[in-house]
Each structure stands twice: as structure tokens, then as C-alpha cells.
Design a protein that fits this description.
The complex is a heterodimer. Chain A is of the alpha+beta class. Chain A contains 6 helices and 11 strands. In chain B, 63% of the residues lie in helices and 1% in strands. The chains are: A alpha+beta, B mainly alpha.
Chain lengths: 216, 291
């Protein structure tokens, strides 16, 4: 129990789920992409689609993509800031079977690469990433989280664990998902302390690793 | 096991350790969250400062993105200042402060969720006018915020502070109980009186449904911050006079949870029941969202 969950969080209104949570979805997606997108397509599902405009969900998502936090007073004017920052965006509506009512599909483009994220705002400003590209997974990004994509060959999990162990990093949870045997796999590793950039860079140089990013 | 499992456990622990209630809450929370005492006090002071900034940053000309809200708090402020009120300027200032914060939230200003964004007006609406009227300093207000957080923590643990889970009684009701306890603390009441105030406040809003028009945190949410604040004031006044809740506060909290569970989903923040189902609300929703 933390008193600041009762007297707090500090946030731009009006809704912890539809506004603060939406900012966090944008922010975590930006980190997963490795920086600000040049172009973003944001497809709203369920309650996000139905009431998002009145809650400022659209402005909140764009604010997060620009790197703003949920208490940033620029959130309501994020569309103007996006223009200055060179972020092109457009909104649409989507119906995703089995998705949480407050969900969004983000199609983000940066440096010729595309990242697709499905995220849900699950209440009280808390979020879950539910899908990365075509991989179903689940993490909250509430603690430092390392996401590693690799070719599904034996040894990758051991290699990554070894690098973390040698750096004295303690692993809290470890998920491995893959699209098909021998295809692409994704590790989602929640660790107890933020990872330095050098360590993430070292993981990228391991055999069969396609990408590695840490949300600290 | 936590001191926040029940109010009786929380008050027992304070008494056993000869700590003021606010200090016990600070210590137990710091321990559970791993935050230092100094960081905790500094953060609580910042939360109070954000409440003040939001209150001062109110813009009477601004309207929410939906166009449903804005400008009402200013009407109250003018009315209260005119001397033409029924209940007098102090009560008038509480009504105005509750509307101000609710409207700030709807207009996407920076606020402190307490315990939620929809109920963010209740605590500042009693704390800020109280400080102006009785000259309470920031130290006293910060202590009152710890007491209110202690009650909020027990309610969150035993019941809920989410409208989607247990209706508006869990949001405005919980905020009102937290504010009632804070007022008793500020006015020099005993720990037991904070518990009676919280119990009375929660009882008097029991059954309140969450029925936001078009699903937006505006109608009736903003004006319910007013009843949350006024209910806190009356509950605190009763408790300070020595009136006791016949039902112990932990049992009131459990009853609130049971009522929340029994509520139809239409009345739990889905925007389908209560006021949200009224013809005017449905017409608004169709005009604004197109469905």
C-alpha cells in the first residue's frame, strides 16, 4: 500500500483510464519503437472508440508518443506539439475480437521500420501491452522490462540470461513467446533494476538476436 | 498482514505505538512502498501544492472538449461573495471549490486523483477553504492528507475505490469518507472521531450509482463532488459533536462492497443506466458521438 495511490496520481484529467492510461500507452509504445515515430496510425477499440474524444484519449495517446508523461500540462495541446515535432498521425476505429474494452492498435513508423502495438488501459492509469507485431504477450511496463526479439534457435534464452547474470541483474519474471517453431521469438523479461544502455547494446550483439529494447 | 487491513487494526496500531494516526499511516506506507520518510513528506507536500495550483488555475471561460461543462464554479464564487447565500460564505466557498476542481478535471487540467480523477474535487474542496477560514498551515494539511489516505487505503483493500467495480459510492463516497476524517483531524478531533466521521460519510452515500452521461467524467460527476464535500463537512461536524456511527466503520466499508457487488453493471460506469439512460443523455450521446 502506498498513500500516493490514494492521494494521487497527479495527472491531466479527466479520466485515469481514458486519459492518464492513454498517455502511458503512447509513452511505452514510443520506447518500444526506440524513439519518436515519424508517422502513427491509431485505431481505437471499444470504449476508447466510443468515448475517447470526450476524454481526450486521442490527445493523450499522441502526447505519450511525443514523450510526455500523464501529468504534463501540454497533453491537451499535443496535436500542436506533434506538428512542431514532425509527427504525422491519424485516427481510426477498429473492432478487435476479445480485446479489452479500452484498447488501441498503434501502427508506428520510424526509420523505415513498422511496429504494431496493441495496448489496453486496465484501470487507475495502469496499462498492459497485449500484442507486439503479431506476437501475443502481456506486460505492464511498471518495472524495468527488457523485450528481446530473436530467431527461434536453441541458446538465445541462455545467452540473454547469462549477460544479465554477469551484470548482476536480478530477473523478476521471464516470458517467452514465439510465432512458430524456428520462426521469431520474443522474450519479455521484468528485472529489479533499470538496465544501462550499454547492457542492452551488448544483448543486441548476441547471435540470433533481432532486436532488444529496455523500458526503464 | 497490514495495518490497512481494517480501520480497527490501524487505530489499534497507532494507540499501541503511541503514534498520532497520520504518523502511523506515513510510517506504514513508507515501509510497504520502500519510500523514505522525507521523500514521503516531500511528495505529500507536492500533492497539496498541485491541488492549490489546479484550484488557482481555474479558467471560468473554458469549456470541456464535449462542451458539457465549465463556468459553473464561477457562478458559485460570485454568488458566495455576494452575501446572498443561504448557508453563508464558508459553505459557499466549499461548494465553489468542489465545482472548480471537477471542472478543471473535465477541462484536462493537471489534478490530483483523490482517490480517483472523477472524485478529485472532494478533498481540496474541504481542505483549502478550511485552511483559509481557520488558518491551518501546510504541515497540518499534510497530516490531514495522511489520515485521509489511511482511510482510503482500508476502503481500497476491503471494498473498492473504482466506479466500474462498485459504483459512485466507491469514488465520491470514498473521497467523502477520506475528507470527513481529514476534517476531524484538522479540527482537533480524536482518532475514534475520525473513524465515526468516515463511517457516517460513507453510510450517507451508500448505494450511489456510477452513471456518467455519454461515459464522460462530467455529468453528474462534477456536481457529485459538491455533495461529497458537503457530506464530509456534516459527517465531521456530527463526529466532532460526539455523535457516533452505530455501525463500526469496517462493517460500513464491507457493506459498501456488498452493495457494489449487487449493483447492476448498467450502474457501474458503463454509461448505460441511471442518468446516462435518460432521454436527454441519450440524445446528447448520439449528437456528440454519432451513435
Amino acid at each position: 500500500m502506498n498513500v500516493f495511490d490514494l492521494i494521487g496520481p497527479v495527472m491531466v484529467g479527466p479520466s485515469s483510464s481514458h486519459t492518464a492510461g492513454a498517455v502511458r500507452i503512447g509513452l511505452v509504445s514510443r520506447k518500444l519503437l526506440g524513439g519518436q515515430p515519424e508517422e502513427a496510425e491509431l485505431l481505437l477499440h471499444g470504449s476508447f472508440a466510443a468515448t475517447g474524444r470526450g476524454h481526450g484519449t486521442d490527445r493523450a495517446l499522441v502526447a505519450g508518443l511525443l514523450g510526455m508523461e500523464p501529468d504534463d500540462e501540454r497533453v491537451p495541446e499535443s496535436f500542436l506539439w506533434a506538428e512542431k515535432a514532425g509527427l504525422r498521425f491519424h485516427f481510426g476505429v477498429i473492432n478487435m475480437p476479445d480485446a479489452h474494452p479500452n484498447s488501441v492498435l498503434l501502427r508506428l513508423h520510424r526509420g523505415g521500420k513498422e511496429l504494431r502495438v496493441v495496448a489496453a488501459s486496465v484501470g487507475g492509469g495502469r496499462i498492459e501491452i497485449r500484442r507486439l507485431n503479431d506476437m501475443t504477450l502481456r506486460f505492464t511496463a511498471e518495472q524495468p522490462t527488457l523485450i528481446v526479439s530473436n530467431r527461434d534457435h536453441p541458446g538465445s534464452v541462455a545467452d540473454v540470461s547469462r549477460v544479465l547474470a554477469e551484470a548482476g541483474v536480478n530477473i523478476g519474471t521471464f516470458q517467452v513467446n514465439r510465432d512458430e517453431r524456428g520462426g521469431v521469438a520474443v522474450m519479455v523479461i521484468e528485472v529489479d533494476s533499470p538496465l544501462p544502455d550499454e547492457l542492452v547494446a551488448q544483448i543486441r550483439t548476441l547471435p540470433d538476436i533481432l532486436s532488444a529494447v529496455c523500458i526503464n | 498482514m497490514s495495518v490497512f487491513d481494517s480501520v480497527s487494526r490501524m487505530l489499534d496500531a497507532a494507540q499501541r505505538r503511541s503514534l498520532p494516526l497520520w504518523e502511523l499511516v506515513l510510517e506504514a506506507s513508507a515501509q510497504e512502498s520502500g519510500m523514505s520518510r522525507d521523500d514521503s513528506l516531500r511528495t505529500m507536500q507536492q500533492r497539496l501544492a498541485v491541488m492549490r495550483q489546479a484550484d488557482a488555475g481555474y479558467n471560468p471561460a473554458q469549456r470541456s472538449p464535449s462542451g458539457l461543462s465549465g463556468g459553473d464554479a464561477e457562478k458559485l464564487r460570485v454568488h458566495a461573495a455576494s452575501g446572498a447565500t443561504i448557508a453563508g460564505p464558508f459553505v459557499g466557498s466549499i461548494l465553489a471549490a468542489a465545482l472548480r476542481m471537477g471542472e478543471c478535471n473535465a477541462c484536462m487540467h493537471r489534478i490530483v486523483a483523490a482517490p480517483t480523477a472523477g472524485a478529485c474535487g472532494v478533498l481540496p474542496a474541504v481542505l483549502l477553504p478550511y485552511a483559509a477560514q481557520f488558518g491551518a498551515n501546510d504541515e497540518a494539511l499534510v497530516r490531514a492528507l495522511y489520515v485521509s489516505a489511511g482511510y482510503g487505503a482500508v476502503i481500497a483493500r476491503r471494498a473498492s475505490i473504482s466506479g466500474a467495480e462498485a459504483g459512485c459510492q466507491a469514488e465520491i463516497g470514498s473521497a467523502s469518507a477520506m475528507a470527513a476524517a481529514a476534517l476531524v483531524q484538522l479540527h482537533g478531533g480524536t482518532d475514534a472521531q475520525t473513524a465515526h466521521a468516515a463511517a457516517i460519510a460513507l453510510k450517507n452515500l451508500m448505494g450511489l450509482v456510477c452513471d456518467p452521461v455519454a461515459g464522460l467524467v462530467e455529468v453528474p460527476c462534477i456536481k457529485r463532488n459538491v455533495i461529497g464535500a458537503m457530506n464530509a463537512l456534516s459527517a465531521a461536524e456530527l463526529a466532532l459533536a460526539g455523535v457516533e456511527s452505530r455501525i463500526p466503520v469496517d462493517e460500513v466499508i464491507d457493506a459498501m462492497r456488498a452493495v457494489g457487488t449487487a449493483m447492476s453493471p448498467a450502474l457501474r460506469e458503463t454509461g448505460h443506466g441511471g442518468l446516462a439512460a435518460s432521454p436527454t443523455a441519450v440524445a446528447f450521446r448520439e449528437a456528440f458521438f454519432g451513435t
